[in-house]
Design a protein that fits this description.
- This protein has 3 helices and 10 strands, in the order ααβββββαβββββ.
- Helix content is 20%, strand content 33%.
- Helix 1 crosses helix 3 (100-111).
- It is an alpha+beta fold.
- The strands form 2 sheets. Strands 1, 2, 3, 4, 6, 8, 9 and 10 form an 8-stranded antiparallel sheet that branches. A two-stranded antiparallel sheet has the order 5-7.
- It has helices at 3-11, 13-24, 100-111; strands at residues 40-49, 56-66, 79-89, 95-96, 98-99, 119-122, 131-132, 134-141, 147-148, 160-161.
Amino acid sequence: MNELTTRIQIQHNQELSAFRQDITSPSYRSSTSASLNADRRSVRMAPVQSVGDGNANLTIVADVEGLAWLTADKGLLGSCITVSIAGHRRNTGTRVHLPLAECDAWIEAILGGSWITHVYRAGKKVESDGKLDIASYRVFLDERRHPVSKPSAVADSSLRRLEES
């Protein structure tokens, strides 16, 4: 864990805990629903201030979906959490680019150190000192909700392990 991750955890502990609980807990399933829609939900964290830019707020959204949504294998068990991070000017709402290091620190603060080795960054490769318009990350979970490597049935070639990026 780096200094930036520690600062985020200290400054936003309550929001992080609630968000983590919302995205990692099993989704509610109606006993009468056989639809795949029961395996999809979106969770939004209240806007938080960037730790690197005092004039920017971050919008952090997670989509949690069953692996059947991502693959042709409709019987595949497990789920995928996709976390997207975008920055906006606090006074105008216009989009701002975010440092990759801060985005990576947020994902580590959200998911925790024990899951970070299973996190994939989506999209084009960015240098470690680069900036992103929207940062997108994925973590795959087995049917017991433990993080696992990307299933072979997931064909997204833009995914790279966080430590490789």
